Amino acid sequence: MMAKSTFLTLIRILFILIISTNLFAQGNGEKNQIKGVRIDEPPKIDGYLDDPAWKLASVVTEFYQREPDNGQPITEKTEVYVCYGEKQLYIGFRCFDDPDKITAKELKRDISLGEDDRVQVIIDTYNDKRNGFWFQIGPRGSIGDALVSENGAAFNKQWDGLFDGKAKIRDFGWEAELAIPFKTLRFRPGQDTWGIKFIRHIRRRLEASYWPEANLNSYKFQVSDAGLLTGLENMSQGFGFDLRPYGLVGLNQKMAKTMR
Asked: The whole model's pTM is what?
């Protein structure tokens, strides 16, 4: 009887552990998901997040440092807003900071923003956790784009996509808006879930913070640890001008060492 009782107790403990593990994994997965909110009236892309669309959008606020203090919360409050219409995906960034301490020099498109504050987004439209579209914008409106492949090991800056972006420095920090046409992004019709990742760089602190949280044992633009953008539907892709989003349009820049 003692042996049987011990066996049943062990079974109960094992069952509780399995249930707890599944609930934790499920909760963690939900934490790294945002709902795609469809809007009827698109925001005006002018660098100000004052349109009604942004009040309806999903919001991301939980950023964590990858560098310099891995795993610690971001030092400056950051909000990212996401919504979409029939033809475009809209992303808004509100980056709180002391305006006098913002590092913002560049204005040109596709110029390096390594010496500036900036925000970036990676969009994995196929949710294959290997390939993605990369977009960035700085406080003065300098925009750039690229293709990420090999789960972040390759970065093709030669690719140029059609999209719009504006940014403004405000008395509380700076704001930026991106409008990315679906014809710029290749995706499977009917696929309602994409991978998505947001990054904010604060230059004066050499700080890079991510949603979802990223660790140092991964590429800076790793795709497989992206969060999920869910509930996408009835999007018009139209006819894109680049039929090879993951092709070798120019030279892929390997980042295996420098991006770790």
From this structure: 0.82
